[in-house]
Amino acid sequence: MNKITGFLKEVYIELTKVTWLNRTDVVRSTIAVSFVVILIAIYVSLVDLGLNTILKAILGGR
């Protein structure tokens, strides 16, 4: 039990040293990540559609 208490105290001390982002930085980062994810999803979808069309043409798809 003593080890657990010591560990939790050390965790708390380390968390007080962390520099947390402010709200505007978090919102901006979230928007940027969402935008990149959407762009990659569109790109992958277009590549999939193109490859699917090519394969259907080659294999005589239904």
Mean pLDDT: 94
Sketch the major β-sheet.
none
Uncertain ranges: none
Q: Which H/E pattern describes the elements?
A: HH
Question: Number of helical runs?
Answer: 2
Termini Cα gap: 67 Å
* Percent of residues in beta strands: under 5%
Class inferred from helices and paired strands: mainly alpha
Dominant shape: elongated
Question: Mind explaining what this structure looks like?
Answer:
The structure is a single chain. The protein has a domain at 20-62. It contains 2 helices and no strands. It is elongated, with a radius of gyration of 25 Å. It has 62 residues and is mostly helical. The longest helix is centred in the middle third of the chain and has 37 residues, at 23-59. It has helices spanning 2-17, 23-59. 85% of the residues lie in helices and 0% in strands. The mean pLDDT is 94.
